[in-house]
Amino acid sequence: DAKTTQPPSMDCAEGRAANLPCNHSTISGNEYVYWYRQIHSQGPQYIIHGLKNNETNEMASLIITEDRKSSTLILPHATLRDTAVYYCIVRAPYSTLTFGKGTMLLVSP
Amino acid sequence: DGGITQSPKYLFRKEGQNVTLSCEQNLNHDAMYWYRQDPGQGLRLIYYSQIVNDFQKGDIAEGYSVSREKKESFPLTVTSAQKNPTAFYLCASHSAGQVPDTQYFGPGTRLTVL
Question: Within an 8 Å CB–CB cutoff, is residue A53 touching chain B?
Fold first, then answer.
């Protein structure tokens, strides 16, 4: 069973921020939160990951709650090219990735 | 260009035939992985290899076989024993200690068995 829970789909207007939630209430102390996205018929693309501190890179920001039971991926200014399935994954060091069904984000003009 | 290549992008085979999917990487990564994806589903791990000449079964290894004779290559054979081989197959690679610590994926091969 997947260790994360995500809404199956979300909509966002182009230019607005997309906030994608993820619940991981059973996360262990050594597990990181990873986000990937998959554009239709392509391989998944790494976005960002974190342990307990908030993280930001050129693609997105990751906000992890203090109890680490949930997180939010933020795309600050969504574009049409951000339309994809977004996967939230918890992973311990040296372990494999387990993908759930993710959230289908549709960015509309 | 550094990266992972999978070939071909589309592959058609008749039922009962074995087929081998290619995966090559020039990232000097130690570990390589094969995943299967069905429509509307997430990725499921078939096999992975953390070092040359060694590999482990993933969650859905039945009907598949792999080899890892070279660091750069991790071919996947879909045998006739695989009951539902039609799917999107993805290869990935990873190296411990890299920054960021993540897997990099190839473009995938879409296999259709007729």
Answer: no
